[in-house]
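Narrative of accomplishments. A recurring question from our advisory board has been how the design workflow behaves on a single, concrete structure rather than in aggregate. To address it, we present the structure tokens for one chain from the evaluation set, followed by the sequence designed for it. No filtering or post-editing was applied between the two.
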């Protein structure tokens, strides 16, 4: 899975300052406003290169398109997770962030601290998977090294290490998702 797409639609009772509050929520979370019209806001963040090195899913390449009509907000979150094998914790972080946006807009509840705590927990969970990838690299790299020594083809070590890392990482992430 390389993309997440979420859509949320909700009613707001007070449209006053709706655009400003929406802009404030996303810019304080690190998103950049790239387009604004009478009824639409578009925020973006991240890049494909950053996807592969960040432990914060909210920094992944994403576009958030928000339509504000009368008293209804419709927000579409397109998250490009290229370079990631999405863990359940990372997916839940995005869902929590989206819920925080709704609560901020409907009830005025600010979840900056809760979002920061969720990001920290997700980063810690991601580091656990880095450890599994390293173990997988050893499991695949050691036999690859033996074969490389016997055949004289040194690239087999790299292939074995990468294959082992990806196999164990994918297995552990699927186990974490209950698959």
């Amino acid at each position: 899975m390389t993309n997440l797409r979420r859509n949320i639609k909700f009613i707001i009772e007070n449209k006053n300052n709706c655009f400003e509050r929406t802009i404030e929520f996303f810019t304080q979370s690190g998103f950049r406003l790239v387009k604004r019209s009478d009824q639409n806001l578009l925020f973006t963040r991240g890049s494909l290169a950053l996807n592969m090195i960040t432990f914060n899913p909210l920094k992944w390449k994403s576009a958030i398109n928000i339509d504000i009509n009368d008293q209804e907000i419709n927000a579409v979150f397109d998250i490009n997770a290229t370079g990631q094998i999405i863990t359940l914790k990372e997916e839940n972080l995005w869902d929590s962030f989206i819920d925080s946006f709704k609560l901020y807009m409907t009830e005025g509840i600010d979840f900056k601290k809760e979002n920061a705590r969720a990001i920290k927990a997700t980063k810690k969970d991601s580091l656990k998977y880095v450890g599994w990838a390293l173990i997988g690299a050893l499991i695949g790299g050691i036999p690859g090294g033996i074969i490389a020594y016997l055949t004289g083809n040194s690239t087999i070590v790299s292939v074995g290490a990468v294959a082992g890392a990806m196999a164990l990482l994918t297995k552990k992430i699927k186990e974490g998702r209950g698959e």
